[in-house]
Design brief:
The protein has two domains: 17-201, no CATH class; 210-319, no CATH class. It contains 14 helices and nine strands. Helix 8 crosses helix 12. The chain is of the alpha+beta class and 382 residues long. The strands form three sheets. A five-stranded antiparallel beta sheet has the order 1-3-4-5-6, sandwiched between helices. A two-stranded antiparallel ribbon has the order 2-7. The chain has a two-stranded antiparallel ribbon with strand order 8-9.
Length: 382
């Protein structure tokens, strides 16, 4: 997976109509040229590349470091190819907010129009749902998903671009998936994750280092529900209400979590988890213990299983059975901070040069007026 840092601040307001219209027009031309040159499957692959996606958004004149680049670029591309999907061989479903929840229906509609095999359509819908579920349940990083778009070709290549927001630090994080690299949907499935801020203790259950946690979680739900519930009862003894959490003492004063601002909290996450108030959790655990999914992916895919269920099983595996998951934030992608001094990592010159070259050639081959082409090319050269 590509790794690094990207700066995405949450936007307020709306994209000006004149800018969106321009992005639709240019996005249509860029897509047409790129599909003619490389084919629809390669276009899907490039969408799944965070550097290429970001560069395309910049070429279309949106702010490079704003969260709106993701939502507006996707909307512009979707609108730009409207009516030309069959000709191009590219189809885009989903979008921001309520539109994101329509993604499976839109995929299904395209499947019917194209007379795709039901099994193929079901597979596309499944991958869309699982990408959203994995990034909300298995990557517990504090970002709430609010945008989900699914790109696919007639040949079966697909990409997911989804974005989450963190209201506490006012930043956004973008998750990229590609069909070729997501052979295992619950183990290192991303083609890239872009974020400004790194979490210091992110429960990363898609990491290779979390394999034992995934295996134990599956094993636990295949066993007795009574045994699993006893393990949950043991976790409940670890819970410490925030009002009683003492971080450190200074003289006669006691500083608690509730009284602190900006101080790193060093307690384990199990100490903040109040499982005693969750009857719904017991209901879901009873359900999965009855159904007994034989793989971790099937467990995650089970209706009703969400972040708290996954977190409970992970904490049982860690606290009681000694299988610690990865707590390393998987976001490692940078456009802003890769530098000539190799901090935090050297700039990948070959990748950047190739991306610029592809976009330059695409701009030259568009049917835009020469002055507009020159303006775009100057931005690329700059």
């Amino acid at each position: 997976m590509y790794r690094g840092v990207a700066t995405f601040t949450l936007d307020t307001g709306r994209c000006p109509p004149w800018l969106f219209e321009r992005m639709v027009k240019l996005g249509r031309e860029m897509t047409r040229v790129l599909v003619e040159e490389y084919g629809p499957d390669e276009y899907i692959k490039r969408i799944a590349d965070p550097v290429w996606f970001q560069s395309l958004g910049t070429v279309l004149a949106f702010d490079w470091n704003a969260s709106g680049l993701t939502t507006i670029l996707t909307a512009a591309l979707k609108e730009g190819i409207r009516g030309q999907e069959r000709e191009l061989g590219i189809f885009i479903a989903g979008g921001k907010g309520k539109t994101s929840r329509k993604t499976p229906d839109q995929i299904h509609e395209w499947g019917e129009r194209l007379s795709l095999a039901p099994s193929h359509v079901n597979n596309l819908e499944y991958n869309s749902r699982m990408a959203a579920k994995v990034d909300s349940s298995l990557v517990q990083d504090g970002y709430q998903l609010y945008h989900h778009s699914f790109f696919f070709s007639r040949n079966g290549a697909w990409a997911v671009v989804q974005q989450g927001m963190n209201q506490n630090n006012q930043t956004a994080r973008r998750y990229h998936w590609f069909s070729e690299s997501a052979k295992d949907l619950v183990c290192e499935p991303h083609s890239g994750i872009s974020s400004q801020v790194f979490g210091k203790r992110v429960m990363n259950l898609v990491s290779k280092d979390s394999a034992k946690t995934r295996a134990l979680s599956t094993e636990m739900v295949q066993g007795s529900y009574d045994t699993l519930l006893k393990d949950i009862q043991l976790l409940r003894k670890h819970y410490t209400p925030v009002s009683r959490v003492v971080l450190f003492r200074k003289g006669a004063d006691t500083l608690t979590l509730a009284a602190l601002d900006g101080v790193e909290f060093k307690h384990h996450s199990v100490e903040l988890e109040d499982f005693s108030k969750s009857k719904y959790l017991e209901k879901i655990l009873s359900k999965v213990s009855y159904e007994q999914p034989d793989t971790y992916e099937k467990l995650v895919a089970t209706e009703g299983v969400g972040p708290k269920t996954i977190r409970a099983l992970s904490l049982v595996a860690e606290i009681i059975y000694g299988a610690s998951p990865s707590y390393e934030d998987p976001a490692r992608y940078s456009f802003a901070h890769g530098g000539k001094d190799a901090t935090p990592y050297p700039v990948d010159r070959a990748t950047y040069d190739q991306t610029i070259s592809v976009l330059q050639n695409a701009v030259r081959r568009t049917r835009l007026a020469p002055p507009e082409k020159d303006k775009i090319l100057r931005r690329l050269y700059g």
